[in-house]
Amino acid sequence: MTGFAVLDVETTGLFPGRDDRITEIAIVHVGPGGQVVDEWDSLVNPERDLGTGQAHGIRASDVQFAPTFRDLAPRIAELLAGRVFVAHNLPFDRSFVLAEFDRLGIRLPFEEAPGLCTMELADRFLTTPSRSLAGCCAAAGVLLTDQHRALDHARAAAGLLRHYLHRSTALDWTGHLAAARAARWPILPRRAARPVRRGATSHFLDRIAASRD
Fold it and tell me: In whole angstroms, what is the distance from residue 80 CA to residue 86 CA?
């Protein structure tokens, strides 16, 4: 269990301390050499409305039968444990993950293994006037397919990480990996929660409607 966990979240808003919640989460596992080895994603029922902006394109019907963060927390902790936490705009994604676990009374060891930000690292590895995910991907030649879907964001950030890993050994990658392995993650009892992905609920409801015609 070593390598990087590249994470992205879609949320109801911008402020986890003001009751904004995660409504979609994706985690892509990347090996020490930059290869993608696994990926996981799910919609999350935020137990509130989806917010006013809804730039993520998620509908209430999409999350109606999705698991809550409490349901998914054991699996998310398992996917992050022992790996370097990576995100594009790390402070944003990390603050939401921390807030969700804090609501459950669970401490995460981000002080021991703070993680890496592909946006911040762009200054070191890329020449681009924009540090947005789209701008960084364009500069690095990384595919970004859907700009409002957590799994596509996480895949793109994983591509940036791979680009950075292959460009330079100046950064202490091994130090980050060692710190992540040494961090003490909580072991939570598994819950019988299955991930729900976009379209799954609507397809299910469509099939029910069709069967009644």
Answer: 10
